[in-house]
Design goal:
- The structure holds 3 protein chains of 3 kinds.
- Chain A is of the alpha+beta class.
- Chain A has 5 domains: about 90 residues, Uridine Diphospho-n-acetylenolpyruvylglucosamine Reductase, domain 2 (2-Layer Sandwich); about 120 residues, Uridine Diphospho-n-acetylenolpyruvylglucosamine Reductase, domain 3, CATH 3.30.465.10; about 120 residues, Alpha-Beta Plaits; about 100 residues, Alpha-Beta Plaits (2-Layer Sandwich); about 40 residues, no CATH class.
- Chain A is about 35% helix and about 20% strand.
- Chain A has 17 helices and 18 strands.
- In chain A, the strands form 4 sheets. A 7-stranded antiparallel beta sheet of chain A has the order 15-12-14-13-17-18-16, with helices on both faces.
- In chain A, a hairpin with an 8-residue loop joins strand 17 and strand 18.
- The longest helix of chain A has 20 residues.
- Chain A starts with a helix and ends with a helix.
- The C terminus of chain A is likely disordered.
- Chain B folds into 2 domains: about 190 residues, 2-Layer Sandwich (Uridine Diphospho-n-acetylenolpyruvylglucosamine Reductase, domain 3); about 80 residues, Alpha-Beta Plaits (2-Layer Sandwich), CATH 3.30.70.
- Chain B has a 5-stranded antiparallel beta sheet with strand order 3-4-8-6-7.
- In chain B, helix 8 runs antiparallel to helix 10.
- Chain C has 4 domains: about 90 residues, Fumarate Reductase Iron-sulfur Protein, Chain B, domain 2 (Orthogonal Bundle), CATH 1.10.1060.10; about 50 residues, no CATH class; about 120 residues, no CATH class; about 120 residues, Rossmann fold (3-Layer(aba) Sandwich), CATH 3.40.50.
- In chain C, about 55% of the residues lie in helices and about 10% in strands.
- The model of chain C has no long low-confidence stretch (mean pLDDT about 95).
- Chain C has 23 helices and 8 strands.
- Chain C is an alpha/beta fold.
- The chains are: A alpha+beta, B alpha+beta, C alpha/beta.
- At the A-B interface, strand 9, helix 7, helix 8, helix 10 and helix 16 of A face strand 7, helix 6, strand 9, helix 9 and helix 11 of B.
Chain lengths: ~475, ~325, ~425
C-alpha cells in the first residue's frame, strides 16, 4: 500500500472507525466482484460509513484528497457497475435504517443501505409495500436500486424505481449537499431527481431516499401457462398487452431455465417438457379480476398453451414465483460463470428476436437460458459457461455481441434495468451517436466536474469531448 | 387567464423562424450561438404564458416555431409506443391513436391544440396524471437540439430502458432552456373496455376517499365555478372517472352511489374541465439546487441563447 | 480414480449475494467478509493457494462463522457451504492448532469415561445450586454456568403405549454426549413418545458422541473415528432407524457418507447408515403422531438451524408441534435465524454469540409466550441461559418434552 493510501485510510478511519476501513488484500477480495461473476477489480481501499454524517464526511474527505470513488450497496448488480478499479469503494450496507414510514402520505424515508424487501416487510402492517421488486430484492438495497433505476417483474404495472422515488438527499462528489425532490404540483424546476435516478453512482451519493409506498392489492391471481413453442408464448404476450390488460407481471421462462430451476431447491413445479412458460399475475380490486384472468387464459389458449394453471393462495403463488425469482442464481448449477444480458426489444418483435437468439446460440455452440420480463420486452438471455475455458469464453463473448446487435437492429436497448456499468459499456456506441454520448458526458460533468464518482462507467471515456466555455458564453 | 401548454396561439411576433427539419433547426441555433442571438422556442404558437418560468422568458428573443416539425415518425400499435415530432398537436396525437383504439394519457391542463413538444418541455400535468403518470413517466425517449446546435437523443423507443444518463427526464420540464425538443417517443395505452365519468354531488372531502378507495379512479376533480357552470353542476361537486372491465367499473359505480347522487356524463366533460379547471403554475428552481441547474445550463447552452430567463437569470 | 478438486462445490457460487441477508454474522458485523459470499471467496482463495492458509484476516472471518448454514437454504445454486467450511477448517487446523480448551473439550466428548466424569461434575454443580448462583457472574463463566443451570429437568412419570397402537419399526436412539450428560430426561421423553407412537426402542451399546463438534472445528480425523464407531454400534443394534433428538447431531450423522466418502472400507456402510438417520420429529410425523388432548397455552417456536437449514426439515417438526394442539403456538418472527449457540461457538466467541442472541431475546419477549420450543440441546441451553441471565421466567423445552408431558398427563389420569 502506498503512503497516500495509508494516509487516506487513516483519515477515513477517523470518520467511520478502523473496523470499517479495509486495506488488506485478503479483506478486499470479496469487494472485487458484484453480482456478475467474471469481472475482478481490486478497490484501492474499502470504507463503510455508518450514518448520514459519516457518509458526507467520507465524500468530503475523498474530495479533499481528490480520490475517485465508487459506491456499492449489496453488490448484487449485474453490470459491474459497482466495481472499483483501483479507486476507493464506499460500502453502504451499514446504513440500513428505515428513518420514517408515513402511512398517511404512503411514503417512507430510508437510508440507502436498506434492503428492498425489508422496506416491504416494514410497510406490511400498514397494508403497503414498495412496488419495484428486482429479482434480487431479498438482498439488494434501495440505494443500489436508485443508482440503477432498477426494475423487476411487477414494474410492468407499477413502474420502475424512477416512478417511486419522491426525494433524495445527495452529496455531490465535491462534498456539497443537495435535497432533490420530484417535480410535482409544486414543481421544482429542472427534474434533477429524475436525472439522478439511474445515474449509476456517477452523479453523487444518496444519503437518504424517500420513496412511494403502494397499497397492497385486494386480490392477486398468478397464472402459469405452458407452451410447446417459444413463439406461442411470445405471441400470447403481444396479444395480452395489445388487448389493454395490464398484468401486474408477465414473465417468460424457457426450457433451459426451467431445467435449472427444477433441479434446484426452488423447484416450482414448472413443466420440464415445456418449451416455455408464461408466469402472469393480475392484481387489484376483487371486482373484475376474474374477468381479466379469463381473458388472459383465452389469449394463452388461443396462442397454443397446453394448460393454464391459476393460483390465488399465498403459498401456491409464492411457489410459482420462487422459481422465477431464483432462476438467475440457479444457473450456477449449469456452469460456474454466467453472462447476463438485459436487452429490451419492442414487444411485437419478441418472437423473431428469440428465434435469432436461439440461432446465435446454436451457431456458437453455447447454451442460452431465457428468463425475462416479457410484458416489457425486457430480455434476459443468461449464458452459463465455464470461465476457465478461454475458447468457450470467447464464443460466449462473440454471441453476446451478436445478440446485442440483433436487439439494437430491432430498435431496442442494451439494458432495461441492470444498467450499463462496465459490462455494457462497449455497446453504448452502437446505441447512441457521438453527439448524444457527449451530451451525457456534459450532464455528468455538471454534477461531478472532477469526474470523481464511479469513473470509467456508463459512457466510454473517449466519447467525452472536453467542453470549453467559449469567451462569448462567459461574457 | 390561466396559461398552459395548450393555451391559445400567440400572434404578433415579427421574425418568426419555422424550420422544416431538425437540420434546419440546428443551423438556426448554430447561427444564433455565433451571433449570440437569443431564441425563444414557440412550439405551436406560444406557451410563454404557462405560468412562471415560461412567462419570464425574454420577450425580445427571436421566436423559433416548431409548427413545421409535426407528424408521426414511428408507430407500431402492438408495441404501444409512438414516436412523434414535437410540433404535433395533442388533437392530432389523439386522432392517430384513436384509429387503433389506443390513447396517450398526457391530456394536460389546457386544450388539445397545444403541442406534444410544449407539453413535455413544460411538464404540464393533467387530471389523469395521478393514475396514469405525468409527462416524465410517459416519455420514453426524445430528441433535442441543444445550445451547441448538436442533435442529441436520450432514452429510446422501448418501454423500459436504462442505457446512459437520463437526458429524457432532464429535458422534460426544462422549459426549453437546455435544448429544443424535436421529437418524443411516448408510452401509449389500449383504450379501456369501459370508461365512464360521473358528476358526484358530495362533500368535497370525499375526493380523498375516492382516490384512496379499493378501486383506483382514473381521475377525480372538484369542479371550479367555471367548470361547474359549464357542466350544469354545483361548485365543489366532483367529476370522477373510472375505467377498466365492466365488472370493475360497475363496482366503482356502486361505491360512488354511496357517496352522493350521480349524474353520468360524456368523457368530453374532461376536455372542458382541462380548459376551465386548470391550476395556475408557478415554478421556481429550488434555491439549493440552483447552482447545479446553472452548471447544467452552462454545459448545454453555454451561450445562454435558449429561452433566456427560465432560471431567473438576468439579461 | 482422480482426487476431487479441492473445494469443488465452491464453483457453484455465482456471487449473486442472495445469501448475505440470511447470514446472522453479516447482519451483526456489517462486513461482507463475514458473509457467506465473502467467506466463500476467502475459502476459494485459500484452496487455490492465492491466499495463505494462515492469513490472519481470513482466519478471523472464517472463525466467526457460526456454521448455521442458513445460507444454504437461501442459495439458489446449491452451494454446499457447510462442507466447504469443514474442508477449509480442516486445512486450517493443519497449520494452526485449535485452542487448548477446545482441544480438551473435544477429547473429553470423544472419550466416554471422561465425558461421564465431566458431565457428572456439571450435574453436581447444578444440583448444589452453584450453577444458578454463578450464572450472575459477568463474561464467559457466567454464561457457562447459566447454560448449565437451565439444563435441569424434573423427572417425568413413566407411561405405557395405549393398547391397540399399531407396531412400527425398531428404533435405536442416539444418546449423545451433552444430551445424555445434562439433559437425560429429554432422551427418556424421546424414547417414551416414540414408543407411545408404536416404535420399538432397541439398545445400541457402543454408540458415542456423534462427532459433529469435531467436524465443525476441523478435527476431521477425530470426527471420522467417532463416525466409524457409531456406524458399527448402530449396525449391531439391528434397528431400522437411528432416532436423533439433537438437530446438530442428526445433521452430522446424515452426512457421515460425506465425511467418510474417501474411506474405501467404510464409505458404503456410511451411505447405508446415513440413509437410516432420522430426526425424532420425522419418525413421530410418520406415525401421525398421536394427537394430545390440547391445552390453552402460548408457545413460541424457534427452529434449530441444523434442522431447518442443514437437514431441511420443516414439515415434520411442524406436525410434531401441531400434535400438542395448543391454542396459541407460533413461530418466532426470526425463527429462521441462528440463536448464536452454534456448538462451541458460544464459548469461543462469547461476545459475538451474545450479540446474535440479542434479537432472539427481544422477539421472545415480544411474543408474550411462556415457553419456547426448540429441538436442539445447544439452542435450548443457549437461549435458556440468555433468558435466565435476563431475569426472564420463560422456559425453553424440546418439542418431544412437551409432547411427552401431554401423553403422560393423559396416560396417568
Amino acid at each position: 500500500m502506498d503512503s497516500n493510501t495509508r494516509i487516506l485510510a487513516d483519515r477515513l478511519a477517523n470518520i467511520v472507525g478502523p473496523r470499517h476501513v479495509k486495506t488488506g488484500a485478503s479483506e478486499l477480495l470479496v469487494y472485487e466482484n458484484d453480482g456478475l461473476p467474471g469481472y475482478h477489480k481490486r478497490p484501492r481501499l474499502f470504507v463503510a460509513p455508518g450514518n448520514r454524517e459519516e457518509a458526507i464526511a467520507v465524500v468530503q474527505a475523498l474530495a479533499a484528497a481528490n480520490a475517485p470513488w465508487v459506491a456499492r450497496g449489496a453488490g448484487t448488480g449485474l453490470s459491474g457497475g459497482s466495481l472499483a478499479d483501483g479507486v476507493v469503494m464506499i460500502g453502504m450496507q451499514r446504513m440500513r435504517r428505515i428513518l420514517a414510514i408515513d402511512p398517511e402520505a404512503r411514503s417512507a424515508t430510508v437510508e440507502p443501505g436498506v434492503v428492498n424487501v425489508s422496506l416491504t416487510k416494514a410497510a406490511t402492517p400498514f397494508g403497503l409495500h414498495y412496488a419495484p421488486d428486482p429479482s434480487s430484492q431479498a438482498a439488494c438495497t434501495i440505494g443500489g436500486n436508485v443508482a440503477e433505476n432498477a426494475g423487476g417483474p411487477h414494474c410492468l404495472k407499477y413502474g420502475v424505481t424512477l416512478n417511486h422515488v419522491l426525494a433524495a438527499t445527495v452529496v455531490l462528489p465535491d462534498g456539497e449537499l443537495l435535497e432533490l425532490r420530484t417535480p410535482d404540483a409544486d414543481a421544482v424546476g429542472f427534474d434533477l431527481l429524475g436525472a439522478f435516478v439511474g445515474s449509476e453512482g456517477c452523479f453523487g451519493l444518496a444519503v437518504d431516499i424517500t420513496v412511494r409506498l403502494t397499497p397492497n392489492p385486494e386480490r392477486i391471481c398468478t397464472m402459469l401457462a405452458d407452451f410447446t413453442t417459444v413463439d406461442g408464448a411470445a405471441d400470447a404476450v403481444s396479444t395480452i398487452i395489445a388487448a389493454g390488460i395490464v398484468p401486474a407481471a408477465l414473465e417468460l421462462v424457457d426450457a433451459g431455465t426451467i431445467a435449472a430451476v427444477e433441479a434446484s431447491i426452488y423447484a416450482a413445479g414448472y413443466p420440464t417438457d415445456a418449451a416455455a412458460c408464461l408466469l402472469v399475475e393480475v392484481d387489484g380490486p376483487a371486482a373484475g379480476l376474474d374477468d381479466d384472468v379469463a381473458e388472459i387464459t383465452r389469449h394463452c389458449t388461443a396462442a397454443g398453451a397446453r394448460s393454464v394453471k391459476t393460483a390465488t393462495d399465498a403459498a401456491a403463488r409464492a411457489k410459482l414465483w420462487q422459481g422465477r425469482k431464483k432462476a438467475f442464481g440457479a444457473m450456477g448449477r449449469v456452469a460456474p460463470t454466467l453472462a447476463v444480458q438485459d436487452a429490451v426489444v419492442p414487444r411485437t418483435r419478441l418472437a423473431p428476436v428469440l428465434r435469432e437468439v436461439a440461432r446465435i446460440a446454436e451457431k456458437h455452440g453455447i447454451r442460452v437460458c431465457n428468463v425475462f420480463h416479457a410484458g416489457d420486452g425486457n430480455l434476459h438471455p443468461n449464458i452459463p459457461y465455464n470461465g476457465h475455458d478461454s475458447a468457450e469464453a470467447a464464443r460466449v463473448h462473440a454471441a453476446c455481441d451478436e445478440i446485442m446487435a440483433a436487439c439494437i437492429a430491432e430498435g431496442g436497448s442494451i439494458t432495461g434495468e441492470h444498467g450499463v456499468g462496465l459490462d455494457k459499456l462497449p455497446y453504448m456506441e452502437d446505441l447512441f451517436t457521438p453527439d448524444s454520448l457527449d451530451a451525457m458526458c456534459r450532464l455528468r460533468d455538471a454534477w461531478d466536474p472532477a469526474r470523481r464518482a464511479n469513473p470509467g462507467k456508463v459512457v466510454p471515456v473517449h466519447r467525452c469531448r472536453e467542453w470549453m466555455a467559449t469567451p462569448a458564453a462567459r461574457s | 387567464m390561466d396559461g398552459h401548454a395548450g393555451g391559445p396561439v400567440m400572434t404578433g411576433t415579427s421574425s418568426l423562424a419555422a424550420p422544416r427539419s431538425v437540420a434546419e433547426l440546428a443551423d438556426i441555433v448554430r447561427d444564433a450561438r455565433a451571433a449570440v442571438q437569443r431564441l425563444r422556442v414557440v412550439a405551436g404558437g406560444t406557451w410563454s404564458d404557462a405560468g412562471t418560468p415560461a412567462s419570464r422568458i425574454r420577450a425580445d428573443a427571436t421566436p423559433v416555431s416548431l409548427r413545421e416539425l409535426r407528424g408521426v415518425v414511428a408507430y407500431v400499435p402492438g408495441d404501444l409506443t409512438l414516436t412523434v415530432r414535437a410540433g404535433t398537436t395533442l388533437a392530432e396525437l389523439d386522432a392517430i391513436c384513436a384509429e387503433h383504439n389506443q390513447w396517450c394519457t398526457l391530456t394536460p391542463w389546457g386544450g388539445n391544440h397545444g403541442t406534444v413538444g410544449a407539453t413535455f418541455a413544460t411538464a404540464t400535468n393533467g387530471p389523469l396524471a395521478r393514475a396514469l403518470g405525468r409527462p416524465r413517466d410517459i416519455a420514453l425517449g426524445l430528441e433535442f437540439v441543444d445550445g451547441l446546435a448538436t442533435t442529441v437523443r436520450g432514452g429510446g423507443r422501448v418501454v423500459k430502458n436504462v442505457a446512459g444518463f437520463d437526458l429524457t427526464r432532464l429535458l422534460v420540464g426544462s422549459f426549453g432552456a437546455l435544448g429544443v425538443i424535436t421529437e418524443v417517443t411516448v408510452r401509449l395505452r389500449a383504450r379501456p373496455a369501459v370508461d365512464r365519468t360521473w358528476i358526484v354531488a358530495c362533500e368535497p372531502g370525499a375526493a380523498a376517499d375516492i382516490r384512496r378507495g379499493a378501486i383506483t379512479p382514473l381521475a377525480v376533480e372538484p369542479l371550479s365555478a367555471a367548470s361547474a357552470a359549464a357542466l350544469n353542476a354545483e361548485v365543489g361537486a366532483l367529476l370522477v372517472r373510472f375505467a377498466g372491465n365492466a365488472a370493475l367499473v360497475s363496482a366503482a359505480e356502486r361505491m360512488l352511489r354511496a357517496l352522493g347522487s350521480l349524474t353520468e356524463c360524456e368523457a368530453s366533460a374532461w376536455s372542458l374541465v382541462r380548459e376551465t379547471n386548470a391550476p395556475v403554475r408557478s415554478i421556481e428552481q429550488d434555491a439549493l439546487a440552483l447552482p447545479l441547474a446553472r452548471r447544467i445550463k452552462e454545459r448545454f447552452d453555454p451561450a445562454a441563447i435558449l429561452n433566456p430567463g427560465v432560471l431567473g437569470e438576468s439579461a | 480414480m482422480t482426487a476431487p478438486k479441492p473445494l469443488a462445490g465452491a464453483d457453484l457460487c455465482v456471487h449473486c449475494g442472495f445469501c448475505t441477508q440470511a447470514c446472522p454474522t453479516y447482519l451483526t458485523l456489517d462486513d461482507e467478509n463475514d458473509s457467506p459470499r465473502g467467506r466463500i471467496v476467502l475459502m476459494k482463495a485459500i484452496a487455490d493457494g492465492s491466499l495463505a492458509v494462515a492469513d490472519p484476516a481470513a482466519a478471523l472471518h472464517l472463525d466467526q462463522c457460526l456454521g448455521c448454514r442458513a445460507c444454504e437454504t437461501a442459495c439458489p445454486s446449491g452451494v454446499p457451504y457447510g462442507h466447504l467450511l469443514e474442508e477449509t477448517r480442516a486445512k486450517m487446523v493443519e497449520r494452526r492448532p485449535l485452542s487448548l480448551p477446545t482441544r480438551v473439550l473435544l477429547y473429553v466428548f470423544a472419550t466416554p469415561t471422561l465425558a461421564a466424569a465431566f458431565f457428572s461434575a456439571g450435574r453436581a454443580l447444578r444440583a448444589l445450586g452453584l450453577a444458578a448462583l454463578l450464572s450472575r457472574l459477568p463474561g464467559r463463566i457466567g454464561i457457562m454456568m447459566a447454560t448449565l443451570a437451565v439444563s435441569h429437568r424434573a423427572r417425568a412419570r413413566d407411561y405405557r403405549p395405549r393398547a391397540g397402537t399399531p407396531s412400527r419399526e425398531d428404533v435405536a436412539v442416539l444418546q449423545g454426549c451433552v444430551m445424555e450428560g445434562l439433559l437425560a430426561p429429554v432422551n427418556r421423553a424421546t424414547e417414551r413418545t416414540l414408543a407411545y407412537n408404536g416404535y420399538r426402542i432397541v439398545s445400541s451399546p457402543g454408540q458415542k458422541c456423534c462427532g459433529a463438534l469435531h467436524a465443525h472445528a476441523g478435527a476431521r480425523d477425530a470426527a471420522r473415528a467417532l463416525a466409524r464407531e457409531n456406524i458399527a454400534a448402530f449396525e449391531a443394534s439391528g434397528a431400522a432407524y437411528v432416532a436423533v433428538n439433537s438437530a446438530g447431531c442428526g445433521a452430522a450423522m446424515k452426512e457421515y457418507d460425506h465425511l467418510l466418502a474417501d474411506d474405501e472400507e467404510w464409505s458404503a456402510r456410511a451411505r447405508t447408515f446415513a440413509s437410516r438417520v432420522r430426526d425424532v420429529s420425522e419418525l413421530l410425523a410418520a406415525a401421525g403422531p398421536i394427537q394430545a388432548a390440547g391445552q390453552p397455552r402460548k408457545l413460541a417456536v424457534d427452529h434449530p438451524c441444523h434442522l431447518q437449514h442443514a437437514q431441511r426439515l420443516t414439515d415434520p417438526p411442524a406436525k410434531l408441534l401441531a400434535a400438542l394442539r395448543l391454542t396459541d403456538a407460533h413461530d418466532l418472527p426470526d425463527a429462521s435465524s441462528c440463536c448464536g449457540a452454534a456448538g462451541l461457538y458460544s464459548l469461543e466467541n462469547p461476545g459475538l454469540s451474545q450479540r446474535i442472541l440479542a434479537p432472539k431475546m427481544a422477539s421472545i419477549a415480544a411474543s408474550g409466550a411462556d415457553c419456547v420450543a426448540t429441538g436442539n440441546p445447544g439452542c435450548m441451553m443457549h437461549i435458556g441461559a440468555g433468558l435466565l441471565r435476563a431475569g426472564s421466567r420463560v422456559s425453553v423445552r424440546h418439542p418431544v418434552e412437551l409432547l411427552d408431558e401431554a401423553y403422560s398427563r393423559e396416560a396417568n389420569v
